[in-house]
Amino acid sequence: MSAKNLKFNSKTIHGGQHPDTAYGAVMPPIYQTSTYAQTTPGGHKGFEYSRSANPTRTALENSLASIENGNYGLAFASGLSAIDAVIKLLNPGDEVISTNDLYGGSYRLFRQVFEKYGITFHFIGMQSVDAIAEKINGNTKLLWVETPTNPMMNIIDIKSIAELAKEKGLLLAVDNTFATPYLQRPLDLGADIVMHSATKYLGGHSDIVVGALIVKDKELADKLYFIQNASGAVCGPMDSFLTLRGIKTLHVRMQRHCENGEAIAQYLKNHPKVEKVYWPGFKDHPNHTIATAQMDDFGGMISFIPKGSSFEDAIGIVENLQVFTLAESLGGVESLAGHPASMTHASIPKEEREKSGVVDSLIRLSVGIEDVDDLIADLAQAIG
Q1: Same domain as 215, residue 86
Q2: N or C, which terminus of the chain has less Cβ within 10 Å?
Q3: What is the DSSP letter of 356?
Q4: Which of 218, 247, 276 is the last residue of a domain?
Q5: Domain of residue 126, residue span
Q6: Are 85 and 36 contained in the same domain?
Q7: Per-residue pLDDT at 53 exceeds 80
Q8: Is 185 a catalytic residue?
């Protein structure tokens, strides 16, 4: 059976994968080498220098393409280096429209690195397709979408925006880090590029830093491959191996992330000391209908605001957690808690943060796969 005909749970294990040709190894070996012997100049077995390609990284890239229903995958040294490659498709004078509550590192890259090269970024609420259409002009070249957004858990209608992008001749890139292809597949909804911080759910064990891009179009893939090779921000063979190993359990981990996430979201919503909970699985979430249409479940990312709390109160809660670990990042098997205003989104000016709802008292949870009763008990003692 062709891997393209496999269902998702099988693709995570078999998609794009073949036993190693040398000895039949089931897991791709770690080719810890920088260069490859040639019989004559240019005469090699498909690999000449590991910045350009490495067999272990190629195995990962094939897996990435398979699970996102794409044709081409590219693995990078980090999620931000993957984003960097996408923006390098643009030229001075080009404009990008992005969501106004995206990851702080993406915002910092856009505003503090690329704006000085003459690329303009507009940050708006992308839940309204009409608002996006109003912002498009002759210089607009790229729509950059996060959904669910980080950390406000807004849901953006990928299919509708893809239709707008096609009508206007724009590229649409979707950061699928929070959802993973287990929950949503943006290429199937019309996106041109899918991006992942594979550091998070795809790797799943908080032991690698890797980024990924997946596309269907060969011409676009060739442009991105050129940038990847020319800029050199590739992931090494060991990180490629670990990410590929993580992908093989993505489906079973995500199932537990979703189950635990729902239980904790409901617990927090009913907690007398919690003012607001942001989780797209709630029927009263403003984008719940879209989430239901484009996602298979609602994930393990939750943000909440304690009732009547201040910056200091929020800090006190995250410092008192004992099972949840206070740390940057998300998507690992262990549960993590963060304070966006002082951690992941500290690079965004306070006024800009608060416009999108990232207030000083907001707490973000990455719900892991521990016993959910232990996680709830931990939240109970920390919130008080």
Answers
A1: yes
A2: N
A3: T
A4: 247
A5: 3-247
A6: yes
A7: yes
A8: no
